[in-house]
Amino acid sequence: MFCEYDITAYPLDQGRVLIEAAAGSGKTYTIQFIFLRLLLERDDLRPAGILVVTFTEAATEELKDRIRDILRQASRRLGNIALGAAVGEDDLGRVLNRALARPGLNLPRLRERLHGVLAAFDELVITTIHGFCNRILNDYAFECGRRGGLELVRENRSFLKQVAEDYWRRTFYEGRPVLAQTVVAQGLTTEDLYALGALLDQDPELAFLPEQPEHASWAEDLQAYGTVLEKLERVYTSACRQGLARLQTERDAIERALFADQALKKNLWRPENFAEYAEALAELLAAADWLDENGLALLERFTNAGLERRLKQKRLRPEHPFFDWAQELYAVVQDYHVTAAALLVAVKRDFIAYASGPAGLEACKRRAHQQGYSDFLTGLRQALTGAAGRVLRRLTGERFKVALVDEFQDTDPVQNTIFNALFRQPGLLYYRIGDPKQSIYGFRGADIFSYLEAARENDQRRATLDCNYRSTPELLQALNYLFQGPSPFLLDGIDYRPMRSGGPARLQLFIDSEPAAPLTFWHLPGEDSRPLSSYEAGSRISGAVADRCVELLRLAREENRSGWRAELVETESGRRRPLRASDIAVLTSTNREAKQLWELCLARGLPALVTATGDLWRSREARDLFLFLRAVLAPDNDRYLATALGTCLLGLSGARLAAFHETPEGGGSSAAEPWRAEYEAWRGAFFQGRETWRKHGLPALLSTFPDFTGVEPRPETAREFPLHLARGRKGERALTNFLHLREVLHETERENLFSPAALLLWFERRLEEGTDGEKKESELKLESEADAIRIMTVHKSKGLEFPVVFATFLWSRGFSPGNGKNLRGSFHQPRPEGGFRRCLDLSARSDPMIGEVVAAEELAEQLRLFYVAVTRAVTALYLAWPQTRNSGKTALMYLRRPPRNEAERREFLLNGAAAASSELINDERSRRWETAPGIVGAIPQEQGLCLTAETFGRPEVFRARNFTRPLLPAAGILSFSRLTGAERQSFSAASRPAPPAAGAAPECSAASPLAAFPGGTATGNAVHEIFEKIDFSLFAAAGKQPEGTPRTIIRRALERFGLGEGDAAAPAADGGSRRERLLLKLLELVLQTPLPGPDGAFRLADPALERVREMEFWLPLAAFPPAEKLTALFKSSGLPAFSHLPREQLERWRFSFAGSQPERGFLNGYIDLVFSYRGRYYLLDWKTNNLGPSWGDYRAAALQQNILEEDYLLQYHLYLIALHRFLAAHLVDYDYDRHCGGVYYLYLRGINGNDAATGVFYDRPSRFLVETLAQMVCGDPVGP
To answer: Do 470 and 24 form a contact (C-beta atoms < 8 A)?
Structure first.
């Protein structure tokens, strides 16, 4: 028997307690007080000895917050009592009074105890069930025999798919063809095997039907079935040939034999149909494929048995050899189908043996050195049932004296076994708290029968929480009316006790100063004596819901004498406020319904949000982002590029994409040139994006992207993806998904140190596999916290409450009648020794007994879903019931017209109610709901109401105020290329690496290793990467090239930037491809070339050099000077490093850049190489510029000319200022003249390896010039 649980006085001694907490009864509130009382009343308990477990991480955090809150309240109340305040008469006051009345306890001791618990709150064990199991496995790893160092994966989906695919290949690719042909013809796939493996992984004790004795080898059975099927196939093929020949040659005789004596009933075998049937049968026989159900029915018409069934009374059956042949063939086909069905069962059982065997799921995990969350449960259960189980139970019992399991109705058999093994021990207190009426997560593994089995245990105390503190008394009265029928939840052990109000309504909805109806029940009858289709009913009800929401929100903006026409009133305080959109929730059965209703709300102007349970990886934004990133890594692929341009991120139209590739009539190209140029400009942007991703990571790439109009890029209108996505009609949803994807991908990139290619591969796998289980980061996030109607599935609504709830779509999801034709999923059977076992029928048989059990469990779950939905409402609930073809197979129909006896119950489960009958709907039993409190009537006619800005109570057009305050100077982060305007080229077709072609680049001297390489960024990037990664000291020995690592670095760089030579790139006998050998020679020449300096010549290969490669800097910009001012400064210095140029040329020279020049910000860049030699610091930049075909093109005058033309003069001075500032900040005795060695620009195509006469530019600017420029650029002089 159950008794009401008293949170202030219920005994807290040892034993087991089951609390059944109805919806809205304060379950979490009760757990708070149980925890508080345990601390105050049990002197033998340590705080860390109280275990609290629940199911989700969100529920765990809520429990922690609520328990911490009650402890703080108690501590503050005790402090006030110490100052003379009264204890109080509320629940907290009664608990404290009870504790203070205990002998040996006083106020200071209680305060000290609570302070200690709060100070060490993080040591309390409040966790998820999986977290608890993992803690036990880790803390007692030796006793559990657990392996260490396993990587945690959230689900076993990938392992299960691998096991299913491995089994399929092993069994069917390497086995007899007839086996594969048969199982495929029967519809079995690897997905079916995966689903079977998932069920087995979820419940290792799952029983399989039909029952089978111990079997030596299912694999041997498969071979035996293969032999039988091959024999049947030979017989069938031969019979088809014979029958086809006879049908072609004796067709007229067969027709005469059938109809000459008119012995057959014409309504069952019409003569005019013979030709059609004969031709159809001939086609089937010619194909010689095994007949399916329809083909078998056609053949049956020509069999002797089929003719007997269609024979008139006292007439003789038609005779012909064709009918005898048809009878024989019919028997062969039946034998085939029986054998094929048996084969399917054998395959499934063989797969089960394989998946649970040494080469199955566990082997996959071992090889990957990984484990999933389910392994925490199975691992602990195995440990408890093993040799160390006794020791483990003792250790756990000594550690945790109390266990509180929240949401116990959602446990499964494995979890129940674990908790019983650990906490059904003498001296322990074991609380199980839940509500079987709210067990709705069977698809996640929750097993209501585990709860029912636990509830039937005799050695426990039982209590209930039946007072509802959520809904108004009037609404509770209506809900009690809905569930007043016999066995409202169908299953024995789940009873409905009428809910009582815990006090006056907390909140009340008033419409025009009158309390709103607590329950509104809409009828939607069929039309013209016919039931509605599900689509018609859904459309009508969606329209009515939208109309009513518009009406309520309109009323909430209109005032009357007392306040607003639609307002919520807090009963205790009397405070009033208008009804808000966020006070309204619409609950649906499926995500599809939620999305459709959301679309309708948007069309009607209603603010609405979908709390979706969908998968992030199934969203449109995930697919489009993958296509975009794929094109970023392969801009040369036209198909990838065109697809990316059409995604939601860039949004180019189909017409525009087609124009990129059109060939004008007449063969001319002038009309297509602008479009082609724009296309190549986009391609250049993707190349630039690839470099951004590689250097700065994914977030930098996904912040902005260049936009184009015509041919020219428009950096000032660069596309910001978040803003672009937010502008769409479903912008909030798209933006939320995009930001969520960016967050998950960046986290994955960072945690796993993925390269862009590796991240893209991971992304692709996620799109293919989706999400299984409760992977939190893959659930769609709520797009906004704005005031909007909440649309969600019933599953998502559990634990929430809303003042107004529309549960108007609960009719759309019914159960499958148990007539033996719609078996699906697992079901439960009672065990002879008590309790239940979960079963799965592997056969395709039609068993009405099993069908009835399956239907009962489906209907019971639908009834529990209905209960969860209707108990979300606080003040007003809307229901709808349309007359459709399937509405008689729903929980709503069962509650409205409950069966009166066992016979009616069985009939309802087997066939459903005749919901299409208007007489049945309107009879006395069905009409009893019309006496329920509230409004019961026909659904209102749809009006198509819209909530416009005007009716919503705010102006239709907003006007921005003029901003008159002065703005601060523009700030920004610049690179040198953007500063000088060179970045325009990086976004154009010029940035695209040109493909190597004969004569595409002028040849240098035969001695130059780079002569065989094309111009463009690909060569430059490859060479830079090689110099960035190579160890210079390996080339210290003159005339000797190193082996090993340098060659590998070169090869990888060539492959990465598309400079490999195909088959020629394979390692040859002399150590590599031609280009690899040339680059190795280039390294030797560059690193052994003597470089001039203040302290004499030296080589980069000298071991004494200390180096930093790709040194990043951030140079503050105070007010960047214009080009004219910079030109004057440099000319005033005399430009001593350019002595080989004519004086008149230097006088004519000036800076010509006109890039972006913010007045303040930072200049960001990378110095290719910074090194020190004999106490001086140098900077160096690699250049692959192609200045001409001969060494003379790389002598001093040519290099100085190029330095001026490309504005490298300003570049290396800015780099030198950055180095100068760095050294001044880090060297205590820094002096520019003593520590600065100068600048080298090495033109690699002109390095000869002997001297610095060609390819080497060197400058050591004066201190005055550097500090003056620093003052102009940075706003402060840089000095020691």
So the answer is: yes
Least confident range from 204-218, 445-459, 919-933, 1195-1209: namely 919-933
Residue 824: half-sphere exposure toward Cβ, Cα within 13 Å: 8
Question: Residue 530 burial by CB count (10 A; 0-12/13-18/19+): exposed, middle or buried?
Answer: exposed
Integer Cα distance of 946 and 550 in angstroms: 6
Asked if the model's pLDDT at residue 714 lies above 60, the reply is no
Burial of 282 (0-12, 13-18, 19+ CB in 10 A): middle
Structure tokens at 742: 């960016």
Q: Which residues are within 8 A (CB) of 1053 and not within 5 positions of it... i.e. 6 or more apart?
A: 1022, 1023, 1025, 1026, 1029, 1059
pTM, 2 dp:
0.70
Element (H or E) spanning 1241, and its range? Answer: strand 1236-1243
DSSP code of 358? T
* Helix/strand/coil percentages in the chain, nearest 5: 50, 15, 35
Q: What is the pLDDT of residue 48?
A: 93
DSSP string computed for 273-317: GHHHHHHHHHHHHHHTPPP-HHHHHHHHTTSHHHHHHTBPTT-PP
In sequence order, the 6+-apart residues with CB closer than 8 A to the CB of 944 are 543, 547, 604
What does pLDDT average to over the chain? 84
Give me the residue label for tokens 């209930």. Answer: 464
* Sheet bearing 15-21, strands edge to edge: 3-4, 461-465, 15-21, 429-434, 402-405, 50-54, 125-128
Place of tokens 């041997």: 220
Helices 1017-1029, 1045-1056: axis angle to 10 degrees equals 150
Nearest to 1031 by CA among 1105, 949, 1090: 1105
Omega cis (within 30) before 210: yes
CB 891 within 8 A of CB 858: no
- The beta strand positions in 332-418, using DSSP E, are 370-372, 402-405
Distance CA 892, CA 879 (A): 10
Q: Could you tell me which residue, 486 or 1039, shows the higher pLDDT?
A: 486
Residue 1115: closest CA among 1213, 1183, 980: 1213
In the numeric block, the tokens 């004795």 are attached to 213
| Mean pLDDT, residues 113-132 taken together | 92
Look at residue 1227 and tell me whether its pLDDT is greater than 90.
Answer: no
Q: Which sign does the torsion angle of CA 1026, 1031, 1032, 1036 carry?
A: negative
Give me the long-range contacts of 759-768 (CB less than 8 A, separation at least 24): 759/629, 759/698, 760/626, 760/629, 760/630, 760/633, 763/625, 763/626, 763/629, 764/626, 766/617, 766/622, 767/617, 767/622, 767/623, 767/626
Q: Do the Cβ atoms of 183 and 817 come closer than 8 Å?
A: no
Tell me the domains of the chain and their CATH numbers: 3-150+370-465 (3.40.50.300), 225-341 (no CATH), 500-612+786-938 (3.40.50.300), 616-664+676-770 (1.10.486.10), 996-1088 (no CATH), 1089-1280 (3.90.320.10)
In contact, 755 and 550? CB cutoff 8 Å: no
Cite the DSSP H helix spans in 213-263: 218-249, 251-259
Q: Is the pLDDT of residue 971 over 80?
A: no
Return the ∠ at Cα 1106 (arms to 1104 and 1107), rounded to 5°: 140
Angle of CA points 498, 499, 500, to nearest 5°: 120
Weakest mean pLDDT among 582-596, 608-622, 839-853, 1059-1073: 1059-1073
User: How many C-beta atoms lie closer than 10 Å to residue 1109's C-beta?
Assistant: 17
Q: How does DSSP classify residue 264?
A: B
Mean pLDDT over 34-61 rounds to 93
Given a contact cutoff of 8 angstroms between Cβ atoms, the answer to whether 160 and 361 are in contact is yes
Q: Are 8 and 98 in contact (CB under 8 A)?
A: yes
What confidence score (pLDDT) does residue 770 get? 66
Tell me the C-alpha distance between 953 and 947, whole Å: 10
| Average pLDDT for 944-965 | 64
